[in-house]
Design a protein that fits this description.
The complex is a heteropentamer of chains A (111), B (166), C (476), D (462) and E (641). Chain A is mostly helical and 111 residues long. Helix content of chain A is 76%, strand content 0%. In chain A, α1 packs antiparallel against α2 and α2 packs antiparallel against α3. Chain A starts with a helix and ends in a 13-residue tail after the last helix. Chain C has a domain of 192 residues. Chain E has 641 residues and is mostly helical. Chain E is globular and about 115 Å long. Classes of the chains: A mainly alpha (111), B mainly alpha (166), C mainly alpha (476), D mainly alpha (462), E mainly alpha (641). Chains A and B meet through α1, α2 and α3 of A and α1, α2, α3, α4 and α5 of B.
Chain lengths: 111, 166, 476, 462, 641
């Protein structure tokens, strides 16, 4: 597939994630939208990885060019998992204190 | 149009549609489910790209572990459609517009990026996505970052404990 | 070496005094240190070889900055002024009670060190350091021991001068990086060949800093408030010595480095200064407070000095030199009187004063002499300075001199108004029980009056002392 | 490498210390010793002595610069723990865990000072920030702390997303994550406009780095988080972590002389000016010293950004000195602030009378932040301004910075005014003599650096 | 002897120091003796100097270099020549008499103030001597301002009265206006010639352009206007009568106010070369002479009449200077010093006797109580009126004759002024000494002749007033009779060379003298008979021109309305509007703006994550836009700086 297709797709997903962050007030949904953004990045990385692979595989069929993109995705997943554990812990902590997951509910810190 | 193209379009449409539905669903549980659908679509893409390892991991880690965690939390809190107050309409509009602007900006950039022209992602071929190759790279060239992620996990673990402790 | 001791004596004593709890000990210690500094200064200036006033040590080699001290004639004169002023000030305020006397006198001595450093430093970075070192203690002094509105007023003063010095810092950096030797030394700055365009912008960075310090119209508004609100000892330091920093800096750091810009901007600056002279004189006429009146009068005098500097001829500059010293002496004398009155009667308002000449004739006479020195009557020291400065200005432009000359008339108006309102007429309810002032103040004033008359009759020593600076600055 | 390994190990050690001993003072003691060890290990690194020899396969590039910074960060943390250890003990039950998290953060800091390649940058930033989310929320019962934690977490993750997209776009254009090979970042106006992908990626990374160092207009998390987090941890975040962000930022751009291209500078000057503007101006009207310090940290970030703007040797030296000066002063101020009963300006009224020594130390710290000569802060600012002037242009930017520096004097001096010139009873929690001595030593250190900045710099350059 | 000329000012200086510092411990007689004695010593030295000069010509004594600056040296030098020697005699001679007089007149004062008075008087004599002795314009200026200072101090001698203080201040400030002109002239000389020494200046006049000379002389004349109370700067002199009467006699009649004449005579060569200035001097002098005379017609304060008379006489002197009759002007200075000092001292004697009553409407018939005073006063009146052979006749005649040669209009106007002089002087004389006493019984009871310290000076001065003119008998009467002219001729030699010689016909001169003397005698007769009648003096308000004259043409009010009030108002405007709201307002406004900005900018920090991220996203969009809109903005900025 032409790489542009993937780029467009991933950017679209990424921006949908951003719009979600901007438009929702539920902390969990906001967090999920951030995960969506990460996934868009992941897909784009894999696509790029295959693109770079395709570029160099012609010269050397045994090349592992492009593999770093996929490994990066792996690390992103690791980080995302860690983030989720911490993030959900924080959200639960907040819920325990306020019985709300509305990000605008807590509004003591401003100005 | 070959199968791969059809599949690509189908998965793309599915991903985008599901992603939009994540935003639009009033009920958080539905959102989670739609998001899982997105993850599935993306996993499908991975398969198309012959990134088998990631496809599996994505399903297991994301769709499986992470999203289930989300579901648990949501259910634990007993959230439903009514619990989320709605954002002001102007705020929503502003969010959509600015997100849209960013998208248009990025896309126009990519369209002008001539060096991307003609480049293709290798579909269903190439073996770098195989577990064997990935594993080899991970434990040779990438062993340091791999070890370092353990620190990340440790800290996340300690953090979760600190937060969770009474 | 002696130059370093000039700094070290006040700094070390000042720090020591912070720990002294007893007022008497603090007073005496400060006075002794100030006198020791004076002795060192006199020895260094008159009795030792010029090399003794120079000092050069490694400080920040990576920056091209060295701990360089040396004094030309102007530096010597101002060092002398500082060294004389501090004992005089300390004696004059000896009877005053201050909270935390240790800190008070300690800070005063620190400011002395800063001032001496400014006058001695020949390294731009060092100069900047001392420039600020002189400011900070004064800020604390004013804010802690000042009048009712002290915090806001001194803060305005502080921010104003701080802003100025930061702009100067930018200017210094600019010169530094345009300097092939990568050195902060004054000499290397003098050797810079800056294009007219380069001079134009950086000149103002420096000038604004100095103009705020002097202060030149329209950068002066911090000054009357600060003088009014500060404890008088500090006001004396500020107006007697600190404002000289600005003038000193213009002569030493501005004119020789930016000759082209100074020449092309001279018109603007002279017109500003002259406007300031008249403006301040007019405002002084309408003041009801001794301190504010003296403050505005000081602005007028400084305006003349600034104008004379930029007239850029030897006569005018010579006048500026001598006037720097004389203005210091005179204005300190006026503050001493103002303080004596305020300490005794608790007011500085003309409307509440009057008839002091009956109650305190000696003070009255000394006050009158200082006042006439303030309006530059011949045979007082200020006449020489004003004569030379006006003369220099005359060489620059006849019309401007004539306009500036009006301030001479206005000076007579407001000074005599002050004399009349304070000394003459019948006693008021406040001054009814006034008595002759204390011995310390009398003797301080007598010393000042002697200086005033002596330099008024025979000013040549000061002229000779500073001649080298004048030729050097204008020779460039 | 030593620092990364040792700090990770020490983190684990701290976790176990928490299990072995319940005495909080023991935790602090162990942490202090650990920090000393860490400092030692890092110093050894300078001489080429390693704990374990690791082949990083180009993932790291340990240079002197990064290691100097490590030493600074570890030293600052040591100072921080010595001064505020008591308060950490009072903050929550899990003292040992807090220390463990701090060690993990230090691990992240060490990664950021030695990373080579965008992968390690990403991992370093995550390792550094994830413990901070926790520390911010450490005061679990406090809603402010909760709120701060949540805000920080959401915005932090969002910026991670932005950064990842940036990295990905660059990868797409160049096929590598290693910085040496991708000369993208900052090559600015010099590269052909066809590399739009790279530029877009670079901008996105720039944005997320700006977020990390709280440069406007990506600074919004800073005041809220700094204000909501427990004071001790704010102190840590505002100093060491922030400085590390800058080091990462600088290292990201270093060796890219091409970055001096004009367009980058437009973006940077826009960011610098708005950071200075927002940081300084907003700080003016704050009533709480803690929140004022949050804004002031933004303002200081504006100054530190000059190091990026000028990107020369002076800037690199300067950012180190700035880190020292800024961190020491801020740690000092926070150490006193968190002992105060009242965080507002009025709470400081009359402190000079009841605690002259502390007031003096605090005043020195504040003067240093304001950049008054004879304090370390002066030379920090000096370096920043000098580095820009050295580039030979942009004097206007320096003048603007200087104007804002004058504004900054306003809010720093408000505290001094409150302490020295206003009457009141400033209330403090109980103080140990050791604390006072520590504060005095800190003040002396700040003054010493202010007179002889080369001591610090020469120390690092051996 | 001329080498010792510095002793002349030295004695009064010592007297000043001794009296000033020791005024609390010395007794009144001792103070009086020190004060008078020091001036007497000066007088003796002056006499010696005078004869030395007469015999051997002038000399310059340099004490030390006062200012040695770039390009010029101003020595502290004294010049003893004919002109200064003459002035020395006048100053020290009359000064001594007045000191003597004062020791009695001021007797009521306490020791301290008595000492202060003598200290001031001595300081004045010192300054005045400096003024006339100085060998350059700067030393003259020192004396010039010094006498102003003493005038200030002495006018405000009774400092409890704020009106007096105001008068003192007014005198000083108005003098300062003139001084500024003087100073500018000095600068001009320094600029063009690089020297201010008389000798060098006068030798180098050729190096000055005519514009320079005109400007310098005009500026110097401004100085003279202030010091010598000419229109428009004359109003301080009548007010200066607030001071003790001996002060008025010494400073405001005999010596200080003639400083302007001295200065112009000294610079005569410059003025001769500046015809425009000469015309101005003549016109101003004449205008002042007549204007002040008209005011004097209607004044009722004995000292005010004399004050306006002084202004008027000074006007004559300037008229003389303006027409080039330098000798005449100096001559008139001398005779005027005699008779005006005498008049003031006589008036002082009257006031002393009347217990500080100065209104002539409340006097009358004092003749029988104070014979000496009366007689001397009468002689002085005759002298000032210009009756031959009293001194005033000769000097005034010399001036008027010179004016006729220059321009007959000056002459006729001058004669008219002389008639008015005669009228108001005899009005004053008659109201004071003739007729019936109009004061209270209390006052009448205490009327007495003054002690010898006061009458002795009166008698001496009366003799001088009568005979003083004989050293300047016009050439018409006898060749070489004008010894003064011969004596002064070296001073005016250069001017004389340049000036065209215009001698009138002897018959014409006789005619003019005769007619004017007759007219004056007629006026005197009219005045005496008119005012001798009882009931001439009524309390009724004057009307019409009389009222205007009584109110001094409302000049003070005019100055107040045109200069003082607007200036004050403008100063107030500067203080409260420009300073407070304008400049300081701007400075504080910046502070307020920052505060306002702070409060507004705070609102950006809304506390809502959504908003924060929204701004971040927008900023990103902006970044992209900026990037792809080229580097124009940046280049724009860098071009500016």
């Amino acid at each position: 597939m032409p790489i542009q297709y993937y780029i467009f797709l991933c950017l679209t997903l990424f921006c949908i994630g951003i719009v979600g962050v901007l438009t929702r007030r539920n902390a969990i949904i906001v967090f999920m939208c951030i995960e969506l953004m990460l996934n868009a990045v992941n897909l784009l990385l894999v696509a790029f990885s295959k693109m770079h692979h395709a570029a160099s595989v012609g010269n050397n069929p045994a090349t592992t060019a492009g593999i770093e993109g996929q490994l990066f995705v792996f690390f992103i997943m690791v980080v995302a998992a860690a983030e989720v554990s911490v993030g959900l812990a924080i959200i639960v902590m907040m819920y325990r204190n306020t019985h709300s997951v509305d990000i605008n509910f807590l509004n003591r810190l401003k100005n | 149009m070959g199968t791969i193209q059809i599949l690509f379009y189908f998965l793309s449409a599915l991903a985008i549609f599901s992603a939009i539905m994540v935003l639009l669903s009033r009920n958080p549980v539905h959102s989670v489910l739609w998001l899982i659908a997105v993850f599935f679509a993306i996993s499908g893409h991975y398969v198309l790209l012959n990134a088998q390892f990631l496809a599996i991991v994505n399903l297991i880690v994301y769709a499986g572990a992470i999203m289930v965690l989300f579901l648990f939390v949501i259910m634990l809190m007993n959230l439903n459609a009514e619990t989320e107050p709605r954002k002001h309409i102007w705020m929503k509009l502003a969010g959509v517009v600015s997100g849209g602007c960013l998208l248009m900006m990025l896309i126009s950039l990519v369209r002008q990026a001539v060096e991307m022209g003609g480049k293709k992602a290798m579909m269903a071929e190439g073996n770098i996505g195989l577990i064997k190759n990935l594993g080899h790279a991970l434990f040779s060239d990438y062993v340091v970052p791999f070890e370092i992620t353990s620190v990340l996990f440790l800290s996340a673990m300690v953090g979760a404990v600190v937060i969770g402790k009474k | 070496m002696i130059s370093v001791s000039l700094i070290l004596i006040p700094v070390l004593t000042g720090i020591l005094l912070f720990f002294s709890k007893k007022a008497a000990a603090a007073r005496t210690g400060a006075l002794l240190a100030a006198i020791a500094t004076l002795v060192a200064a006199v020895a260094g200036i008159f009795f030792l070889s010029p090399a003794d006033l120079s000092f050069d040590a490694n400080w920040l080699p990576e920056f091209g900055s060295r701990f360089r001290f040396s004094a030309d004639g102007m530096g010597k004169m101002l060092v002398l002024l500082t060294a004389i002023s501090f004992p005089v000030i300390l004696v004059a305020v000896r009877k005053n009670e201050y909270r935390n006397p240790g800190s008070f006198y300690g800070l005063l001595l620190l400011s002395e060190a800063g001032l001496l450093g400014v006058f001695l430093a020949t390294d731009a970075l060092l100069f900047y350091f001392f420039w600020e070192l002189a400011l900070i203690p004064v800020y604390f002094l004013c804010s802690a021991w000042g009048g009712e509105k002290r915090i806001a007023v001194t803060f305005k003063f502080f921010v104003y001068t701080f802003l100025g010095s930061l702009l100067m810092l930018v200017g210094i950096l600019y010169l530094y990086f345009n300097n092939p030797q990568h050195s902060f030394s004054l000499q290397s700055f003098y050797e810079l060949k800056l294009s007219t365009a380069q001079q134009g912008f950086v000149f103002w960075l420096f000038f604004i800093a100095f103009a705020i310090k002097m202060p030149v119209f329209p950068f002066h508004t911090w000054q009357p408030d600060a003088y009014e609100q500060s404890p008088t000892a500090v006001t004396m330091v500020m107006s007697g010595i600190m404002v000289k920093m600005g003038i000193f800096a213009v002569v030493r750091w501005l004119l020789p480095i930016f000759p082209a810009a100074a020449a092309s901007n001279a018109n603007i600056i002279i017109i500003l200064s002259v406007t300031g002279m008249l403006y301040a004189s007019l405002i002084a006429i309408r003041q009801d407070d001794i301190k504010r009146l003296i403050a505005y009068s000081s602005i007028a005098h400084i305006g003349l000095m600034c104008a004379a500097i930029f007239a850029a001829n030897k006569t005018g500059l010579q006048g500026v030199m001598i006037q720097m010293f004389n203005h210091g002496v005179n204005v300190i004398g006026l503050w001493v009187v103002a303080d004596a009155i305020e300490q005794q009667l608790g007011t500085r308002k003309f409307s509440e004063l009057g008839g002091l000449a009956q109650k305190a004739p000696v003070l009255a006479i000394l006050f009158v002499v200082m006042s006439f020195a303030n309006i530059a009557l011949p045979l007082t020291n200020a006449f020489i300075g004003e004569f030379l400065m006006f003369n220099g200005l005359f060489h620059y432009n006849i019309l401007i001199t004539a306009v500036a000359g009006v301030s001479v008339i206005l000076a007579a108006v407001y000074t005599l108004l002050m004399v009349q309102k304070v000394l003459y007429g019948n006693t008021s309810s406040v001054t009814e029980n006034a008595s002759e002032t204390g011995g310390n103040i009398k003797w301080v004033l007598v010393v000042l009056v002697i200086i005033v008359i002596a330099l008024g009759v025979y000013p040549q020593p000061v002229i000779d002392l500073t001649n080298d600076t004048v030729s050097a600055v204008l020779g460039k | 490498m030593n620092a990364i390994i040792v700090s990770a190990l020490l983190g684990v050690v701290m976790m176990f210390t928490g299990i072995i001993s319940q005495k909080k003072s023991v935790h602090t003691a162990v942490a202090s010793v650990g920090l000393l060890l860490l400092l030692l290990a890092n110093l050894l690194n300078h001489y080429g002595l390693f704990v374990i020899h690791v082949d990083t396969r180009g993932m790291f590039n340990f240079e002197q610069f990064g290691m100097y910074f490590n030493s600074i960060a570890i030293f600052a943390t040591l100072v921080y723990v010595l001064l505020s250890g008591k308060t950490i003990e009072h903050t929550g039950v899990s003292t040992a865990d807090f220390y463990a998290l701090i060690f993990f953060v230090l691990c992240g800091v060490s990664i950021l000072s030695g990373f080579n390649g965008l992968l390690m940058l990403f991992l370093g930033i995550e390792i550094m920030t994830i413990p901070l989310y926790i520390l911010t929320g450490a005061d679990k019962r406090n809603l402010k702390s909760n709120e701060a934690s949540l805000k920080y977490f959401l915005m932090g993750s969002f910026s991670t997303g932005i950064m990842l997209m940036g990295i990905t776009l660059i990868y797409g254009a160049t096929g590598t994550f290693t910085m040496g090979e991708s000369n993208v970042i900052g090559s600015g106006g010099l590269i052909p406009k066809t590399s739009f992908l790279e530029i877009a990626g670079a901008i996105l990374i720039f944005v997320s780095m700006c977020f990390k160092v709280s440069a406007a207009p990506f600074h919004f998390w800073t005041p809220d988080v700094y204000d909501g987090a427990p004071g001790v941890f704010t102190s840590f975040m505002a100093t060491i972590v922030k400085a590390a962000g800058f080091i990462a930022f600088v290292r990201l751009y270093e060796n890219n002389t091409a970055m001096l291209g004009p367009t980058w500078r437009i973006l940077l000057s826009f960011v610098i000016i708005s950071t200075l503007l927002i940081g300084n101006i907003t700080a003016v009207f704050q009533q709480s010293v803690k929140r004022m310090l949050a804004y002031s940290s933004i303002a200081q970030a504006g100054f530190m950004l000059f190091a990026l703007y000028s990107a020369n040797d002076l800037a690199k030296e300067g950012i180190l000195l700035y880190s020292v000066a800024y961190s020491l002063a801020t740690i000092g101020i926070f150490a006193i602030l968190i002992k105060m009963k009242d965080y507002t300006f009025d709470g400081f009224n009359g402190l000079a009378k009841s605690q002259p020594l502390l007031a003096f130390a605090m005043a020195v710290c504040l003067l240093s932040l304001a950049g008054i000569p004879l304090t370390a802060g002066f030379f920090a600012k000096y370096y920043m301004l000098a580095s820009v002037v050295k580039t030979g242009g942009s004097l206007w930017l320096v003048v603007i910075a200087v104007l804002f520096a004058a504004v900054s004097a306003y809010y720093y001096f408000r505290v001094i005014q409150a302490m020295y010139f206003k009457d009141g009873e400033a209330e403090l929690m109980e103080l140990t003599p050791a604390f006072k001595t520590g504060m005095l030593a800190l003040a002396v250190l700040i003054i010493l650096v202010g007179i002889f900045p080369t001591i610090v710099l020469n120390f690092f350059y051996f | 002897m001329s080498k010792l000329v510095y002793l002349v000012p030295l004695f009064p200086l010592l007297g000043f120091l001794v009296n000033g510092l020791g005024r609390k411990s010395l007794s009144k007689p001792l103070i009086g003796m020190i004060g008078s004695g020091s001036v007497l010593a000066s007088f003796i030295v002056s006499v010696l100097v005078f004869f030395d000069v007469k015999a051997n010509g002038g000399t310059v004594v340099t004490l030390f270099d006062f200012i040695k600056a770039d390009g010029f040296t101003i020595p502290f030098a004294f010049q003893a020549d004919q002109l200064s020697a003459l002035f020395l005699l006048i100053i020290t001679g009359i000064g001594f008499l007045i000191h003597l007089y004062s020791s009695a007149y001021m007797h009521e004062e306490t020791e301290e103030h008595f000492g202060r008075f003598f200290a001031y008087l001595n300081l004045f004599v010192f300054s005045m001597l400096l003024l006339v002795l100085g060998a350059n314009y700067v030393i003259m200026f020192i004396g010039w301002e010094g006498v102003g200072l003493c005038s200030y101090l002495l006018i405000g001698f009774w400092f409890k009265n704020n009106d007096y203080n105001y008068a003192a201040r007014k005198a000083f400030v108005m003098n300062r206006i003139g001084d500024l002109g003087f100073l500018l002239a000095v600068f001009w000389l320094l600029l063009k010639l690089g020297t201010v020494n008389y000798g060098d200046v006068f030798a180098n006049v050729s190096r000055l352009s005519s514009f320079d000379i005109t400007a310098i002389t005009m500026l110097l004349f401004v100085g003279a206007m202030g010091k010598s109370a000419q229109i428009p700067l004359y109003t301080w002199l009548p007010d200066a009568m607030a001071g003790p009467t001996p002060v008025s006699a010494l400073i405001h009649a005999a010596t200080m106010v003639t400083a302007g004449i001295y200065m112009i005579s000294r610079s005569n060569i410059l003025y001769t070369l500046a015809p425009a200035t000469q015309t101005l001097v003549a016109v101003i002098g004449l205008a002042t002479a007549i204007f002040a005379a008209t005011i004097a017609l209607k004044q009722n304060d004995i000292k005010k009449v004399l004050a306006y008379s002084t202004v008027s006489q000074l006007g004559y002197m300037f008229l003389g200077l303006g027409v080039g009759a330098y000798t005449g002007a100096v001559f008139h200075v001398m005779t005027h010093a005699f008779f005006k000092a005498l008049l003031f001292l006589g008036a002082g004697s009257v006031i002393h006797a009347m217990h500080h009553e100065q209104d002539i409407r409340k006097m009358g018939g004092l003749k029988k109580y104070m014979p000496v005073t009366h007689l001397t006063f009468l002689l002085a009146c005759l002298a000032i009126a210009g009756i031959p052979p009293f001194s005033g006749f000769f000097s005034k005649d010399e001036i008027l004759t010179a004016t006729f040669a220059k321009n007959p209009v000056y002459y006729f106007a001058g004669v008219a002024g002389a008639l008015m002089t005669a009228f108001y002087m005899f009005r004053l004389y008659t109201l004071t000494f003739l007729g019936k006493f109009r004061g209270t019984h209390e006052q009448e009871h205490h009327l007495h002749e003054s002690p010898w310290q006061m009458t002795f000076p009166l008698i001496v001065l009366a003799v001088l007033s009568v005979a003083g003119g004989w050293i300047g008998i016009p050439e018409v009467f006898a060749a070489n009779a004008h010894s003064l002219e011969h004596f002064l001729s070296p001073i005016f030699a250069d001017s004389a060379k340049l000036g065209e010689a215009h001698h009138l016909e002897a018959s014409q001169e006789y005619l003019m003298m005769g007619v004017s003397t007759l007219l004056i005698a007629g006026i005197i007769f009219f005045a005496v008979t008119h005012f001798k009648k009882d009931g001439v003096v009524t309390g009724a308000e004057e009307t019409g021109i009389g009222k205007v004259l009584e109110n001094k043409w409302y000049i003070d009010e005019l100055y107040d309305a045109v200069i003082v009030k607007p200036l004050n108002a403008f100063a107030g405007f500067c203080k409260s509007v420009i300073e407070k709201s304008g400049i300081d307002g701007l400075v504080n406004g910046v502070g307020k703006l920052v505060g306002y900005g702070s409060r507004q900018m705070r609102l950006l920090q809304s506390g809502q994550v959504g908003n924060y991220i929204l701004i971040m996203v927008l900023a990103m969009v902006v970044f992209f836009l900026v990037w792809f809109n080229d580097a124009t903005i940046y280049q724009f900025f860098n071009k500016i700086f």
